[in-house]
Amino acid sequence: xxxxxxxxxxxxxxxxxxxxxxxxxxxxxxxxxxxxxxxxxxxxxxxxxxxxxxxxxxxxxxxxxxxxxxxxxxxxxxxxxxxxxxxxxxxxxxxxxxxxxxxxxxxxxxxxxx
Length: 114
Description:
The chain is mainly alpha-helical. It has helices spanning 11-17, 34-44, 51-64, 72-101; strands at 20-22, 31-33. It has one domain (11-110). The longest helix has 30 residues, at 72-101. InterPro entries: CxC1. Pfam families: CxC1.
């Protein structure tokens, strides 16, 4: 995938438009499929969440296909960060939709926070 980065269209925005979630909001070094992050999130609702196991499994899977070199601990951290923010944005979107359906005012800064 090729991205053309400029101040008017950051990498994170382009990745999201292509169905990927960046590992960092600025200068992401890796991106994960939104579908895969959704799958991990759903899976984590039914078993103990374990980003380390997911990272190890994904690295082994991709290595067998010669797709990604083993990146060790940094991969786990990037997956964990992407998953954390994906889940937070998903939660905020759910709160916003619920509040709009109820006719309640919605403010991004307090999206479901007590």
